[in-house]
Amino acid sequence: MTAVAAAFAHLHADAVHVLTGWSAPDPGQDRLRRDYLRHLAEHPEGVAKAGPPAHLTASCVVLDGRGERVLLTHHRRADAWFQFGGHLEEDDASLWAAARREAREESGIPGLEPLADPVQLDRHVLVGSFGRCHEHLDVRYAAVAPEGSAAVVSEESHDVRWWPVGSLPGGTAAELAPLVSAARAALGL
Q1: Domains identified in the chain, total number
Q2: Strands 80-82 and 69-75
Q3: Angle of helix 9-21 relative to helix 95-107, nearest 10 degrees?
Q4: The domain containing residue 46 runs over which residues?
Q5: pLDDT class for 6, splitting at 50, 70, 90?
Q6: DSSP assignment, residue 169?
Q7: Residue 10 CA neighbour count, 13 Å, CB half
């Protein structure tokens, strides 16, 4: 076992547990779930940025209490609007904890608590300057922002802003609309 695989073994085990137990909402998501599990079986370090160029990440889409608005970050490196998220870190206890950490760090909202289970999986090739990272196998969670929360722009972002769920920023609807819909359904909004 490599040093990276050993350091991230707890996250690898958690990812296998989460994905094995997750009830995918449709055949496409179930296909991704099985692909992720195959990837993890082939790559013991497949949850680490220092692992293979394709690796798991965790993210969290944040909605308001009525599910009418979504809080997005204009990612500095990608120069595009996304939900909050990123790489798993060695001291994350789980995929869920990584998604919560990323959401709190990137939104500046300390009280965010994602749902216990993922709401969507998304595998995407990275475009831009991301070093050795080539592809993210994203495990996506959802959270509701506490009433009166004020977002803060982090060093990783150009901006953080609320958007109406029916009027997402240009060029994002194809990726973000299904995620927002899945989050609203999971949150009962």
Answers
A1: 1
A2: antiparallel
A3: 100
A4: 3-187
A5: very high
A6: P
A7: 11
Average pLDDT over residues 132-145: 89
CA-nearest of 103, 113, 66 to 83 is 103
Query: Residue 146 sits in a domain of what CATH number?
Result: 3.90.79.10
Give the strand pairing for 135-144 and 120-125: antiparallel
* Beta-carbon contacts of residue 6 (< 8 Å; ≥ 6 apart): none
Q: Which two tokens stand for residue 185?
A: 């359904």
Full DSSP string of 49-116 = TTS-SEEEEEEEEEE-TTSSEEEEEEETTTTEEE-EEEE--TT--SHHHHHHHHHHHHH--TT----S
| Prediction pTM value | 0.94
Rounded to whole angstroms, how far apart are CA atoms 64 and 54?
32
